[in-house]
Amino acid sequence: MKTLTVKHWEHNCGKCDRSFHVEEEAARMAPDGPLYVAPTEYPYAVLDRKKGVICPHCGHTALVNLGKGKNKKVELSLLVHPQWLAGSSKQDMNGQPCGGSAQDDVATTARWDQARAANIRLLEVRGALPDEVICPETNITFKSEAGTVPKKSHYACAACGTVQDVLTTIKATGKTGPMAAYAVQGYSPKRHEVGKPYNGRFFAAYDATHARQYDAAFAEWEARKDSDLKDYWPRSKLPFGFMTHMNNGGIPNHGFTHWWTMFNPRQLLVHALVFKSLMDAPNRGFKQEVVDAVLGTYVQAIRYHCSFAFYQADYDKLIPHFSNNNYHPKNTPVEGNLFSAVGAGGYNAIRNWLEDGLGWKVNPWEIVSGAALGRINPQLTSAISGKSLKVLPGDYVSGADITCGSSTDLSHISTASLDLVITDPPFGGLLHYSELSDFFYVWLRLALKDKYPDYFCAEYTPKSLEAVANRAREPENPDGFYQRLLTQCWREAYRTLKPGGILAFTFHHSEDEPWVAVLESLFDAGFYLEATYPIRSDETKGEGAKPGTFGSQMIEYDILHVCRKRTDEPKPVSWGRMRREVMADVRQLQALLENHAKEGLPAADLQVIRRGKALEYFSRHYGKVYVDEGRPISVKDALIGINQLIDEDADKGKEPSPVDAEPITRQFLRILGNGSELKRDQLQKFLKGSITTPDEFVQRGWCAEKNKVFTRTNPLDFAREWSGKHRRRLIFDLDQALVLIGACFEGSGINASDTLKNENFKPHIALKPLLEWFIRNGPDQPARNAASRAVSIYNTWQASQVRPTQGSLFEEYEV
User: Fold this and answer.
1) What does the pLDDT look like over 442-466, one tens digit per residue?
2) Handedness of CA 266, 271, 277, 279 (dihedral sign)
3) Could you tell me which of 650, 655, 677 has the C-alpha nearest to residue 666?
4) Cα separation of 551 and 446, whole Å?
5) For 307, phi and psi rounded to 5 degrees?
6) Does residue 74 contact residue 27 with C-beta atoms inside 8 Å?
7) pLDDT beneath 70, residues of the chain
8) Does the chain have fewer CB atoms within 10 Å around its N or its C terminus?
9) Rounded distance between C-alpha atoms, residue 284 and residue 272, angstroms
């Protein structure tokens, strides 16, 4: 669907006196195909400068003097005719099989291509697309929205109407789904020169002539692939991996079993010929470094010339493979023309990439945000056209030592020799770069395995030391494997840094889970966070951009983490006291940032900023931040507690749970409040973006799920569950509070004082504040009454105790 602009004039017929528009050119996307004009479209005629204008009402032709015209927009839709959508038989008229899959031979695929091309018909509709259209060539009336895709990943058989799953159907064949082209998008320089609408571009039906051209290329490929071109295309099978076999239904189940199945025969022929020419170039007098530069650039072009490149209607162009960083089979694949003067990924584009890269190497440039310059000097803004400015710092890199290997072993770098390490650490199982890079590697290896055996001798990219949580390679404990390797990477950075050196990296806080591993491995390697700096995610995107999200909210800020090597033992601190210090710093930082914000900072940005500041404090005391005497808080629980800072600000109308309570307790009490139950979907929404799951609450016995509803555990039932159990294990604050409250229910039969007097019981610092909180916020009156009695019993017991001397960390209580 396109909206084209065309010049027009208002005109009245000299014979019938009815009005219509005279348009300077025909607004068409497919000028050689049939056109249906919607009934809602205003009457029009296209100007013929020799014959004049034909009235659309009465047919009167007249030469007219039009004067100055105006532009107007014409809405167009290009439809594939139901005649083609009806499909083709898997056998031709003579009973011979038809192919079309990557694994089929040239004879069967030629029969398929000719059968499909014989039925292709496009229909262009002018005006708002009506529910039904009439083909002017066949007089067939059909629904404009009719198609064969009733819902995602399914298709409806055009012959019988049965709706079936695409993957199930294709998997049963053991091959890729048969592909057939239905349209060609072309470009006419002459149409462009004379100002035709659509800037010289057009669509045409993929007819029998096009099919014969394709089949001729297929026949040539069949004849040469095992002879003169046998060494210039990858024959290997896809190695088992997460991105290939466990994601998107497993692409071998879609028939993509070998690397060559990701290309059609004409693309394989072109790529093989190019690689043959490049590999022979040194014999023709070209320097190897020149060949390498061209080869490294060309291999990027295969993203545009494979079966995973697809047509994007909104952009009206080809979008390359890996635009979304996975092997996702496409339902609108596009075959581009490598040697066209126009189009994405063509010869001119490759040449420009190469020239730009070589030019940047000699004279590098950087992009500076216009908004950033405006904050420095408002007068600079008027001197910039656009959202950013390209600047030339004149500091090209010379003498750089570039190596390829695992960061777990940097033995080629001397100990304590670096001032600065900047890294982009991998984050959990988000992206598996080695599996993605195999797509390029198998082609590069053809040309480089003999010249650079250290890097290209293996059949695939090395994966054993990739710091990533990959369930395909480490099914038992992928997260643990990832964290161990990441820790070793940080340790090598620690070893190579000078005592006063800096490790710096940025991180986009969209999820907590991978960040736990990054933090733990960073701190275990001996680093602490010297400072965290909020920076805009991408200032060049301007207004309305979507740099990223936290849960469902947009994030404008990333956090730049500046780390140093820990030289002293961390000092112990209570979790509650640390939170107070964090909030004081955060409020100061927030006020500073809001001076630069037009409408204050959104909640998602405050979450990022507060978390960065809290982690800065936490890292300085890592291993010595205590939620209770002798019990340090974990990174995971610290992150839960940090997330609650912003939640509590948002819930200012509610009484927060005690500040010294453990993070998981505060999370539970904040969400349920004084309620007794919550639906699963609501609970999951509350926990979205965090690392807490509803199951953690269930495992602790604080609630139970039935029929997708979580019901709070009655304190009396909880206390009875603890009857007879060793009090040494009663260490968590909410567990202690529920046991005492349950024991204080009328007729419980449990003596609350017995728990308090037990020599193995050590009351949590937050126990009394939690009991007092339940007096005001218990789920029902019996629970509130029991909490009141529990406070009285606790006060009596506490008065009888000698105040311990080893409580300095928890002597200051906060409100």
Assistant:
1) 999 999 999 999 999 999 999 999 9
2) negative
3) 655
4) 44
5) -80, 0
6) yes
7) 507-514, 536-558, 589-610, 643, 645-653, 688-691, 802-815
8) C
9) 18
**The pLDDT value given to residue 314:** 83
SS (H, E, C) 516-539: HHHHHHHHHCCEEEEEEEEEECCH
Q: How does DSSP classify residue 243?
A: I
Cβ proximity of 622 and 570 under 8 Å: yes
Looking at residue 172, what is its pLDDT? Answer: 94
CB 404 within 8 A of CB 259: no
Q: Burial-class residue 694 by CB neighbours within 10 Å (0-12, 13-18, 19+).
A: middle
- Exposure of 107 by Cβ count < 10 A (0-12 exposed, 13-18 middle, 19+ buried)? middle
Q: Report the DSSP pairing between strands 163-165 and 141-143.
A: unpaired
* Angle in degrees, CA 153, 156, 158, rounded to 5: 145
Identity of the amino acid at 766: A
Side chain identity, residue 226: D
Q: Are the C-beta atoms of residues 766 and 630 closer than 8 Å to each other?
A: no
The whole-angstrom separation of Cα 732 and Cα 274 is 67
Tokens of residue 55, six digits? 């009235």
Tell me, what's the pLDDT at 658? 87
Phi, psi values for residue 651, rounded to 5°: -105, 45
Q: Which residues of 485-511 are buried (b: 16+ CB within 10 A; e: fewer)?
A: bbbbbbbbbbbbbeeebbbebebbbbb
Question: Which are the contacts of 432, defined by CB distance < 8 A and separation ≥ 6?
Answer: 241, 242, 243, 466, 468, 470
The answer to whether 331 and 307 are in contact (CB under 8 A) is no
pTM score, whole prediction: 0.79
> What's the rounded Cα separation, in Å, for the pair 320 and 302?
9
280 touches 322 (CB < 8 A):
no
The DSSP code for 625 is E
> Distance between CA atoms of 638 and 625, rounded to whole angstroms?
9
Contact between 559 and 507 under an 8 Å Cβ cutoff? The reply is yes
The span from the CA of 422 to the CA of 561, in Å, is 10
Consecutive H or E run containing 558: strand 557-565
Structure tokens at 425: 């650490």
Question: Which residue shows structure tokens 């999951």?
Answer: 684
| Spatial distance between the Cα atoms of 688 and 607, rounded to a whole number of angstroms | 13
For residue 676, give the nearest of 716, 709, 719, 720 by alpha carbon: 709
Spatial CA neighbour of 677 closest among 647, 704, 716: 704
- What's the CA gap between 251 and 260, in Å, rounded? 13
Structure tokens of 350? 């490759």
- What 589-592 contacts at long range (C-beta under 8 Å, 24+ apart), as own/partner pairs, is 589/534, 589/613
Spatial CA neighbour of 494 closest among 523, 516, 466, 468: 523
Q: Is-contact 514 430, C-beta < 8 A?
A: yes
pLDDT at residue 10, rounded to an integer: 95
By CB atoms closer than 10 A (0-12, 13-18, 19+), residue 79 is buried
Token couple for 651:
């819930």
Handedness of CA 531, 532, 533, 537 (dihedral sign): positive
DSSP string, 582-604: HHHHHHHHHHHHHTT-SS---HH
What Cα–Cα distance (Å) separates residue 169 from each residue in 153, 156, 164?
Answer: 11, 12, 7
Average pLDDT over the chain, rounded to whole? 87
pLDDT value, residue 650: 54
Task: Return d(Cα 34, Cα 79) in angstroms, integer.
Answer: 11
Percent of the chain as helix, strand, coil, to the nearest 5: 40, 20, 45
739-767 pLDDT per residue, tens: 999 999 999 999 999 999 998 899 998 99
Residue in the block written with tokens 């066949």: 138
**Terminal Cα-to-Cα distance of the chain (whole angstroms):** 61
Torsion angle, alpha carbons of 140, 143, 147, 150, to 10: -150
CA-nearest of 676, 635, 414 to 520 is 635
Token pair belonging to 61: 């032709």
